[in-house]
Amino acid sequence: MNDDELERIKQRRLEEMQRQLLLKELKEKEEVKEEKEEPKKEPTNQEILNMYFKDRAWEVWNEAKNQYPQVMPRLEYLLVDAIKQNKIRNYLDGASLMGFFRQIGLPVRLRTKIRISEHGELKTLEQKIKEDRE
Questions:
Q1: Is residue 124's pLDDT more than 80?
Q2: Of 18, 79, 119, 132, which sits 20 to 30 A from 39 (CA to CA)?
Q3: What residues does each domain of the chain span?
């Protein structure tokens, strides 16, 4: 082999390596482009409600779901639809949700406990009455 042949072999090898490098870069660019073009995942109803519910709203919502299981899926759909159409712009707390349910004729009952704070300790009304009798 003479020097000219050796140079041609080196040149072909260099061209082949450059071609492979370009192909690799093109593939990477296509992958990045595909990742960017992926459609944005639309948030679920729960995620949308979670953005608008504050304070004790979830507590009221879950109680309503337990008490009115046939009505709540439809109500959820309507509420999310109203949020998407910007008919509801403010946050919903437990009290406003209770008022809404009452207005549409769903009296949601929440479990309530009366507790008394005595010397930094919370006691139920039953415990307090028992202690006073003793």
A1: yes
A2: 79
A3: 1-38, 43-134
Residue type, 13: R
**At 123, which helix (H) or strand (E)?**
strand 121-124
Nearest partner of 43 among 32, 34, 52, 55, judged by Cα: 52
pLDDT, one tens digit per residue, over 2-45 is: 778 888 888 888 889 898 988 888 888 888 777 666 667 788 88
Nearest Cα residue to 58 out of 43, 69, 70, 46: 46
Cα separation of 49 and 61, whole Å?
10
Q: At 117, is the secondary structure helix, strand, or coil?
A: strand
3-class secondary-structure state, position 82: helix
Query: Residue 17 corresponds to which tokens in the numbers above?
Result: 């390596």
Which residues does residue 123 pair with via DSSP β-bridges, in sequence order? 116
Structure tokens at 51: 């953005």
The answer as to CATH 1.10.8 being correct for domain 43-134 is yes
pLDDT-derived band at 123 (thresholds 50, 70, 90) equals confident
Between residues 69 and 89, which one has the greater pLDDT? 69
